[in-house]
Amino acid sequence: MRTIIFATAIRYLTPVFLLFSVYILFRGHNHPGGGFIGGLIGSIAFVFHVLAHGSERTVNTYFQLTVFHQNRQENHSRTKYVWDLVGANTWKRIQPFKSASWQFYILRVRPAYMMATGLFIAVTSGVVGLLRGQSFMAAWWMEGEIPIIGAIGTPILFDTGVYLLVLGMVLKLVFTMSKE
Fold first, then answer.
1. More exposed terminus of the chain, fewer Cβ within 10 Å: N or C?
2. Tens of pLDDT along 35-63?
3. What is the pLDDT of residue 28?
């Protein structure tokens, strides 16, 4: 099912799916929806991307970051060092650096780490109630509101944890199945 039309459509629809999943995540603590359905919608974007481009390209595009680093002693000024570092990590990503002074590190987000982080955030949101002398998972809201999101509290932390947990589980399943 790797056609040019499908691959082009997925390239444009992936950000739309991801933005909609984040919208559903933040909508969830005031209305039905939230972390679970937002995580499923977000994972649909990556499932379609794997179908269109393969799991290796999806991992390299969305879950892998190459960070370039240069030894500071070679540059004379701090400003030039910072400018070269920002340039290497943003604008010149496509061109590999052939100079021996540049080193790079590859940071990869693995689905298992995403699941563990989501579980940690969800449990931590419940512990806040215990620390305040209330029952486990008792809601606590901060004073003040953010204009688009609304009031921030422990339910949004719980939904964020569930979002990451569901997204990580589906990604692990999809990446494992696409390798076979």
1. C
2. 899 999 999 999 999 999 888 888 888 88
3. 73
Pairing of strands 141-146, 150-153: antiparallel
The type of residue at 28 is G
Rg (C-alpha) for the chain, rounded Å, is: 21
pLDDT in tens, 56-103: 888 888 888 777 766 656 556 777 777 776 766 665 554 555 555 667
Cβ atoms of 165 and 118 closer than 8 Å: yes
Place of tokens 């799991």: 55
HEC letters along the chain: CCCHHHHHHHHHHHHHHHHHHHHHHHHCCCCCCCHHHHHHHHHHHHHHHHHHHCHHHHHHHHCEEEEEEECHHHCCCHHHHHHHHHHHHCCCCCCCCCCCCEEEEEEECCHHHHHHHHHHHHHHHHHHHHHCCCCCCCCCEEEEEECCCEEEEHHHHHHHHHHHHHHHHHHHHHHHHHHC
CA 150 to chain centre: 22
Output the pTM of the full model.
0.79
- At 147 the pLDDT is 77
**Encoding tokens for residue 106?**
């590859």
